[in-house]
Design goal:
By secondary structure, this protein is α+β, with helices and mostly antiparallel strands. It has two domains: about 100 residues, PAS domain (Beta-Lactamase); about 130 residues, Reverse transcriptase/Diguanylate cyclase domain (Alpha-Beta Plaits, 2-Layer Sandwich). About 35% of the residues lie in helices and about 25% in strands. The strands form two sheets. A five-stranded antiparallel β-sheet has the order 2-1-5-4-3. Strands 7-8-6-9 form a four-stranded antiparallel β-sheet, sandwiched between helices. A hairpin with a 5-residue loop joins strand 3 and strand 4. The longest helix is centred in the middle third of the chain and has 18 residues. About 25% of the residues are buried. Its EC number is 2.7.7.65. It comes from Thiohalobacter thiocyanaticus. InterPro entries: Diguanylate_Cyclase (IPR050469), GGDEF_dom (IPR000160), Nucleotide_cyclase (IPR029787), Rev_trsase/Diguanyl_cyclase (IPR043128).
Length: about 250
């Protein structure tokens, strides 16, 4: 389609668009631009030298600082025209990326494993901690930290093992730093230690030749604990060398 358009036709097509269009002659020199492109420049078209970031773009996307200091994420397309010239078409997708980031921040699940992410686990764990305060019921929290050659496939394999070994009432969360968090309602530390031993054995067999090791930390809920202090106490017991070192409940 584009190689059948003349520069003037392309300019007419996009001059009312939010997308920015820059037409270059056969020598790569700026020939024309639409209003949206001129709004991206801190100078007029005459000041658009060969080292300008817009002309230096050589990929499908470009991070660009606008004339008011705004940071823009631009998609870039290279369009050949009928007379041997070409056009650069820039589409600002900064707002789309911002919305995607906000959506990711609001998400409660890890995109790789489908488990609760750190935020999701916090949301799920808070009622359990409140229940412990009200009824003095037990709750143990286990941290599992992977070390070695850990990729997304390894994280998926670990998540499957955890789902297989834990009860339906238990909660499993994970974060992108290779750490899994297991919240075990109605579970004392001694019982959680038995679970850790089983998981340690299962993971060792699963990754025997894969260069992946697991370290565990454990804390049982205390009356002074909130969600974060419980996680912090479990994290303090993580010891890669010891494997299953635990904290006093």
């Amino acid at each position: 389609m584009w190689d059948r358009l003349t520069p003037s036709q392309l300019g007419e097509l996009l001059d009312t668009s939010h997308d920015a269009l820059l037409v270059l002659d056969s020598d790569g020199q700026p020939r024309a631009a639409n209003a949206a492109l001129l709004r991206l420049l801190d100078t007029g078209l005459d000041g658009l030298g060969p080292d300008h970031p817009l002309l230096a773009a050589n990929a499908d996307s470009l991070s660009y600082t606008g004339p008011r200091g705004e940071r823009l994420e631009l998609q870039v397309r290279y369009l050949p025209l009928t007379d041997g010239s070409r056009a650069l078409w820039f589409r600002d997708h900064s707002e789309q990326q911002r919305l995607e980031r906000e959506l990711a921040e609001q998400s409660l699940t890890d995109p790789v494993t489908g488990l609760l992410n750190h935020r999701g686990l916090g949301v799920a764990l808070e009622p359990q901690v409140s229940r412990c305060r009200r009824y003095d019921s037990p709750l143990s929290l286990v941290l599992l930290e992977l070390h070695g050659e850990v990729d997304n496939q390894a994280r998926i394999r670990v998540s499957r093992i955890l789902k297989d070994q834990l009860r339906w009432a238990d909660m499993i969360g994970c974060s992108e730093d290779q750490r899994f968090i297991l919240a075990l309602p109605e579970t004392r530390q001694a019982d959680a230690e038995q679970l850790i031993a089983k998981l340690h054995e299962r993971l060792a067999a699963e990754f025997a030749d894969a260069g992946v090791d697991a370290a565990f930390g454990l804390a049982e809920w205390r009356k002074a604990d909130n969600t974060q202090t419980l996680i912090n106490r479990a994290a303090q017991t993580l010891d890669p060398a010891a494997g299953t070192r635990t904290a006093a409940g």
